[in-house]
Amino acid sequence: MPAMSRVWLLLACVACTAPATAELEDDGPDGKEDGGSSSRFVEVDPSHTNAAFRKYIHRALDKLEANDTEIAALTLLSIKAGHIRIDELADLTCKDFERVRKDLPNLALEPADRDRLHDRDKEVATAIAGEIDGYMWSNRIYVSRGQSAQSLAATFVHETNHVINQSDVGYYTDLPTSGLIHEYRAFHAERMFDPSAYEGVDLVDYVLTEYDLDRTKVKPSVLANPLTPHLLPDEDAWTERRVQDDPVEPIDCDPLRPVGQDGLEVRRVNRAP
Ligand SMILES: [Zn+2]
To answer: Strand pairing partners for 43?
Structure first.
């Protein structure tokens, strides 16, 4: 089990499943573009796709399919229905890249670095993946390459829970209490999917520590009972969440235009409880 590392990102999250094993595959010189598609998930940017990426996602979806919990089945259904859109960090939309860039100041990325995400040397993509293994905004979930199938499946469960609860908005409303509420729930969802990853872990302590949340400033009633709806991405949750009403953002934009910082989800790489 790797050592914990303090998370410095504003809304950082640690991956809670087994350490990732390398599953990097060669996308070929042209990056993620072969014109194909998957019937099992919707990509944020379908114009950039290839068989290796789809296979990478499919392996995680297979893990969800093989899991006999209700939350795994509903997460899988949510992905297949397109309630969630998936892509890799190298395919961040312009605005999402700006959000990530500003949340990772230590990388000193420039707006123009988005154009380098698909460079053959993978310098920019590797730098970002060295910091985070996932990111969400609205119903878009971006993941790093190279995660184990089980870890990626758990990431989907965790991030889907954030999407149905619109954590990109609610996380900041009443910190640190709101942060604990949103992360505790997402980790609880992961634990439902893979209890073995959380054996002996006090989830409240875990979230408070990893998110650097001050226990003394969290509402005592929430500390005592942190779990709130919605837990399952079922039909009722999606009826209420209405992701179709979220602002539509273009894939490309003017990177110099400011973007909001009020809500994002970042997960650290290769950390287990
Ligand atoms: Zn989270």
So the answer is: 86
